[in-house]
Amino acid sequence: MKRIRQEGDKGIVHKSRGKESSRKLPKKLTDKVVHLYQQKYQGFGPTLFCEKLEEIEGIHISDETARKWLIQAGLWEKKIKHKIYRQWRSRKEHRGEMVQMDGSHHDWFEGRGSGRADNRRRDKRTRAVRRIRQGIGRTLGKEDICSLTAKS
Question: C-alpha angle with apex 116: 141 to 114, nearest 5 degrees?
């Protein structure tokens, strides 16, 4: 508040504004890294390039810094991430044509009774969810699946 009263509106602006960062890497290093990339490491990606710089040349910089310098020098292009194209599947014509099944094998009675599995099947045409109860040791056979789709 004191600075605002003394300097007016200019007192709001931070005093470091417009000055170079004290953490900025020297221009000599930037030029050396870009030169090395052009001479010895052309075609390397920024990550591999940084690994080789540290391993062979003894220069340690982050891969993001190298990527930024290479883009500024016109030696690397920014990669654009494309969205994955997904197309909705059209509904099936007949009930039971495509059925998705899921099950949960769990000791529901905590050892006090026979083991049961809670299975559900979802018809992809009607989106109806049906529940199937069965013993844990028993698996659904071909007849069971056929009868399930026929009853729907």
Answer: 115
